[in-house]
């Protein structure tokens, strides 16, 4: 089933409800029994028979009532364990037919059955006393992750054992004491950074170990060490972390299966025993349900169906969770899945962190209502943190904890919270939500407006003063009295606290993890098929490169070609397991979450991963061996065929274990791939092929013996070269009797047959070791910390500033007379009132300091179509196009704030995208005019701003830099730098960003700004462009009430300067909704049902809808926005049998709207069409300079990319220098030359690949920002491409310098200026073209994941044709052309020819006794490297760099993978 948006839940429930009524045509009371005597007798007899069964069987049998084909009610005995999926779903549908009414009645029935036999339910009282939590942090610029700070942190970390790091102490929670009582649902409120999440984690026993904690947390008087808190309580995170490949049901089923049934089975056992003794006959449906939920280890549980129902997820049960690669459920539905993951478990204490983000208020109300019923009826303990609880949702809670600055301001009954603040001198306004009031009254800037005692001047009361005052308030004193009396442990139910570490037995946990891993493997079948196809393709190419007709067995040189073929097979099979690292890293967040909740031990997670991959490893090994063994011409003996297969299978297992281990230790792809590459470099280079054993220095010989590649390579060559066909007599310079032995000795391989089995044993040992280390890493390592930029507090001047109110009713913006008049009368605001006006800064009202031209936008009969989705065509829909907007008309004017409202799927964002010209596909009909002239997108982007719902910004620049960059490229070039800076500062003041202007933006959910700060930055970035028209998509989504008020105050201030502002809004509070002047309301399907003024207290809107027959009048104090959406919902339309769109089209409001559209679609006399001399406000060079400026700061503050890259290069350079020490002066044999080529080959391969792979995510993030900035008309694609490419040059230069200094000096190449220059030149351009190749691969692919797959596929071919595995002269003629197109081949060519092309040292040829060759002659005749060709090689390096750069720029310019 396709995923539906969160606010379509009402429809889904309605459809399910009607279906349920058709299936179960029974009495309205689903718990009523039939009175027919005969049926009662039969039922009684069946129950008596059931009662006679042994207890074990009795708890697995029950009676299920269903309707047969004839419509008759039948009752059949069922095996609970064998209940089908359909039967479970039908039972839940039956008992929860109308979720709003039936859930509480159902829970009451459960409770009545338990109470009837005198069983007490376990209860948990959570107490916290003097709880303090502290952290050590950097403040100010020291917290920014610059390269300098990164290095300082590294030094401090290494020296912390001797000298402690200099950090500031941050108090997160300060002396908190309180009680979370059972059967009472508590709401946790507080502004951002008040410590809500920390408190929830502390109560759930999940605080990170790096925090300092003091105080006491107890459950029923027991401290945390007395029981297992992870099994007793459940923490529901605000971050949604799920496996994208699983459906909603599969996710919840697995969570429920792992958490077990707790004490449900034991309670049911006792319940059944007592009922039997008392002769009580339970309700059949309740009996079946309770027996079903008490069965542990079920693959799919009825609990899942129940939770899906109460969370409104039953409409997307079989939809994938999804991610950026897979289409899945909506954000609001993901949030509900996160909640459901813990609700399916048996925990009795629940701590929920911001569970309503992304949900509309009606859905939130329904979920909280169901949670309240669970708490009240089933005696649960629950603490819930919410961002913007609507008044009706707030009323559902029993208690409230108000937190500010880490201190409790209030804790007690909800209904008394306003009394406390009244006693402190503050009063909540009549039309103000209590929850909003509570969060604003503790804010410095908003407190004054609530001061009630006008006889005395207001004085700011801080959180600390509120906290102290509460202790002397009668509720605070009562709380202290309760805490002073210890909890009586004897009152604690024996089953309340869990002492078992896991919910299932080991075998059951392993079975559950196996089932999930198998499912994930099937869902990722494309990846495994792709890998298999890739292996097959590369194998087919390799066997035509090493074709048997081109290979012989007559010399050591012939043998070296076979060694190369075997080595390539080893590399192919080994590095095909590289995807294991990416899979492990991508799943670690889910694993850590479930490990912390004690779903399963690490070994039960790792074992299925290891075992299920075995067949794939065998298949890949079989493909290589079966396809190449005969075609390449390896020894034609069956035993040696299977022995080679065994080796490759062992290598595959070893490699998979190694990559899993590296992924689990690295824990992020950048760290895992970087440091993983370092480890791989050692085992790869010292494996016996790149450098022979006899040339490995004594200080590195240990690494040779611990390299698994060495054992794999030796077993392969021993299997081949000790065969009879290589026993030909040998007469060369090596001490050997046969050619086979000579080949082995020339490379330093073992020459005895028994070493084959020793190597096999070693490979198996390594496979076991790496997988064991993988399991240990999963067991003991924790997720990488997410650094947040902690800045110093505001200075005294800022903190003493005037405190303006956030009251967003008409009084808040009464200064704009025209807007207020428009709101009251619904009249047009004449644009001439604003024309040419320059709004300046005053003490009374902040405004914009630059002149602008007020503009209106009118649109008539807008229709928008997209091609019919394939999924809908499969359902039988025959139309070719799907219409998303239908005849929408309206007008937006200067100085008027317009709300664009509708349920999800109504087309709000679609309409905004169409009007702003941001759509990249689809078909648009209708007319759009700007101040009477037809809209032209080229000029429109210059005078408009678009604040997207997803706050997209470059993560590694500060707030002020983001704004300066936007102003630089969007303000007219006539505006000088000084004015520009002043304007940016004014905008920062307007949106209240000045105190944090130097904070790093960061990535959402990872580091940097909070959601609310990021939202204000999005608005500010558009405001600094000085636009006349601003579109804002969901500016308050995901914000708490206080943050939403700040954002709306920013929006209101912007409108008051005379700009045209349009906002889409989901379900706003009363304050926010009534800050708007006009409304455009859409219903699902993209049809307008109201367009006009709101009026004071929404009077015009209310008057219009109350005039429609059958619409229920609004209740006093009710939110007009909520009422409007409720009475115009599809279910309301169906109930009233009306079409609100049709009613609107026949109304006087529509006629007025059309008249206004007509008026604004005609230019005013004397006006001229908007036009600009150039497409962009700045010239090409200025765009380049601005983009380069931003990229400079982005790179300087990205140590995980640049610092790690430089450190990695230094480590590799030092490593190579010590491995190939003085090799440049020890060229005695041909093998020495090959060793030197191997050094260059390895460096090019690993460092080049590392550069390409690590730049991909960096460019991927910046490309997303580029799409937004290009859409805003800031710059063309070429300046961006130039800046992205140019900023790499200095970093690659430093990287090359570090590498060359180490390697050139330690390998001891001849010290001449020319050779040093050549070495530097070729390495520099090698690193550079690899980096540009990585950038190019991102530019031409939809996402980073796809880019990584494509680039790695080409790397395999580059490796094969590099000239090291098989020299170019030995490559068959039909493939030799590709070697000339291979970048790595040119890099090796340049370095080897420049360093050895003129060396006249004599080297010994192993195939000829007495035959001597100069080095330069050998590399020219045998390898094809000509010193005289260096000029051409240098030009090719430049050409490769330019080609990759050109394709990158072309891809950025021409390809747009953004789908809107």
Automatic annotation (TrEMBL):
CDD domains per UniProt: ABCG_PDR_domain1, ABCG_PDR_domain2
InterPro entries assigned to the protein according to its UniProt record, in alphabetical order: AAA+_ATPase (IPR003593), ABC2_TM (IPR013525), ABC_trans_N (IPR029481), ABC_transporter-like_ATP-bd (IPR003439), ABCG_dom (IPR043926), ABCG_PDR_1 (IPR034001), ABCG_PDR_2 (IPR034003), P-loop_NTPase (IPR027417)
Domain of life: Eukaryota
Subcellular locations according to the entry: Membrane
Domain ABC transporter: start-end pairs: 155-430, 857-1109
Gene3D superfamilies: P-loop containing nucleotide triphosphate hydrolases
Name of the featured protein: ABC transporter domain-containing protein
Single Gene Ontology MF annotation: ABC-type transporter activity
Residues passing through the membrane, by range: 526-547, 559-578, 610-632, 644-663, 669-692, 755-781, 1200-1221, 1233-1259, 1280-1304, 1316-1334, 1346-1366, 1429-1452
GO cellular component: membrane
Major localization class: membrane
Membrane-topology annotation of the record: Multi-pass membrane protein
Region (Disordered): 795-836
Biased composition (Polar residues): 808-819
Species name: Adiantum capillus-veneris
Keywords per UniProt: ATP-binding, Chloroplast, Membrane, Nucleotide-binding, Plastid, Repeat, Transmembrane, Transmembrane helix, Transport
Family per record: Belongs to the ABC transporter superfamily. ABCG family. PDR (TC 3.A.1.205) subfamily.
